[in-house]
Fold this protein.
Amino acid sequence: MLGSLSEADDALQEAWLRASRAGTEGVENLGGWLTTVVARVCLNMLRSRDHRREDPLDPLVSDPIMGPESGSDPVQEAELADSVGHAMLVVLDTLAPAERLAFVLHDMFAVPFDDIAPMIERSAAATRQLAGRARRRVKGGGAVPAADLARQREVVDAFLAATRGGNFDALVSLLHPGVVLRADKAVIPTPEPIRVSGAHAVAKGAMAAVERAQFTGVALVDGAVGLAMARHGRLALVLAFTITDGHITEIEVIAEPPHLRRLALAVLDA
C-alpha cells in the first residue's frame, strides 16, 4: 500500500496503538477489523504524502539511493521493490489515495468492495468505479504495436542490466555514437538543465548511477518503454528513450515533479 518498509512499520505501529486503546472485546471479525484500521492509517499517510508533493525533492546526485530521511535498509527496500515490481510502485504513486486503496485491497488482496467502501466513505458502486479507473491507469493503453514494444523493451532491459552490472562496454554498444542525454534541473544540482552528447560520455554518466539503478524498473512512459525509479515507493525519476534501429539515440531524464505528474505511466506486461 505504501511502497516503503519504514512507512509500513510506522503504519503498523499506529494501528497497534489504536487497537490497544480501543480494545478488541466484542469484535467478531478481528482480521477484518484490523484490516480496516491499517487501511485507514495508510489512507491518512497517503493523503499527507499528497499534501507534500509540492515540496522540492532533494537533488538525486547527492542522494543516489534512499534519501537522508530514511532509516531503513537500502537492500531490503530494493528487495521490496523487486517483489512488488518497480513499475507497479511507480504507477501506484500516480493514483489518488482512495483509488490506490481500492485497487490494492481488491485486486491484490481480494477484499470485497462492500468491505472497502466504508474505509474510504464511498458506496460500494463508487468504490468499484475507483478500482476500475485505477486498473485502467495501471494497465495503460495499447497505442504502440506489441512488436515495437518488444523491441524497445529488449534494448531498455539491456540498458538497465548493463547499468546495474556496471558494464561500460555493454552500455556503449547500446548507444548510438551521437546519442544525446538531457537531464532537468531536479536531477542534479545545477542552475540549468544538463546536456551530454556521445556514447562514451553518456555511458560514463550511467556508471555513476549503478546503485540508483537497483531501485529502477521498466515501465511504459507515454506509451513507450522507459525506466522509472521509486524511492520509498514514490516516483522520483523517469528515463524516456528514443530508440532507432536497435540503438538509443536520445535519453531524457525527468525528475521535476510537475513534469513527472504529466507523464502517462503504466505497468508493462511481462
